[in-house]
Amino acid sequence: MNDTPLTTLTTPITAELLRGALDLERTGRGLLPHRLPARARAQCADAQLAMTESQPSGVRLAFTTRATAVELDTLPTRRVYPGAPPRPDGVYELLVDGEPAGRATATGGDVLTVDLATGATTREQGPVATLRFAGLPDRVKDVEIWLPHNETTELVALRTDAPVEPTPARGRPVWVHHGSSISHGSDAASPTTTWPAIAAARGGVELVNLGFGGGALLDPFTARAIRDTPADLISVKIGINIVNADLMRLRAFGPAVHGFLDTIREGHPDTPLLVVSPIHCPIHEETPGPCAFDPDALAAGQVRFIATGDPAERAAGKLTLGVIRDELAGIVERRAAEDPRLHHLDGRELYGAADFAELPLPDGLHPDAATHRRIGERFAERVFAGRRAPFAPAVE
User: Fold this and answer.
1) How many helices (DSSP H) and strands (DSSP E) are in the chain?
2) Is the pLDDT of residue 8 over 90?
């Protein structure tokens, strides 16, 4: 990183240079990518969703250039949780013709302090950061800069030592994926190593990641966003957030899933559509939510999660991961009789009990970097590869 700006070309950052975002907001200081459109954001006042949809998981600058040096001015928002371990800085990754070519973190930016007990937040404004990638090959090439998957990032300026143009379409199918914090990339090492990014690279597709930490709740506005987004392949991973938020009972869950899928099908009647049930998560396999921070772990300066429901409450319709898996499998089986491009994948094929024994979830809820890689590789094997795989016809 070098704080001395290039004295050559400044290119306006526009939608044509960005992939993976559904909306761009002009702020007083830069350009803020969003992963939900403005109309959807206006229909939900939840601060958690507002934070996570503005974290640019899967969003990247994509351009073609002969430049050997690239500078990006950004304004990150760092999160601080008093009493919990500090979060790692967001990572920016540079790809040249699809291959890793550099990574950096940004100094400066705003600081958002979050009280884990009350949810109250305070914000302290900070300076713009400059990242520099130099020594790029002196030839025409495709360049991508993947933004931090877990850090809200405003884009301020793009400078290069040669002209840039938006990367033309290369004919790769567009894959729109929706899920929870696991799909968002929680605890992944970098933006290109979240499990959806790994699966997309192996499957040869363009990723639009609509994974929202805590936000996979069958919200109608999310279904409409998927409906209205161009896509060749669509997947929805449903379950863990509905359980750990204790959001609904079985009576409401089934119709909500049907409605979510109906809305997607309004815009994509023939697109391959995959419903993925939850991966293995012992705290919620047979115990309903809500989920809570483990107070003993917090007292020791660690973050772990526990389920606070009572397994006996399943009789009254409370949801567990086991209940949701059975319900999703039945819904897809019944719908597929009239919708042959609708598919189901049991999430335990991606990460099951044997995987947990080998690679446990560090906080009881979220996979670590090694587990993200395993899930992404398995998803690619089961969903993109093989003649009978759900997405294989679109990528052969």
Assistant:
1) 13, 21
2) no
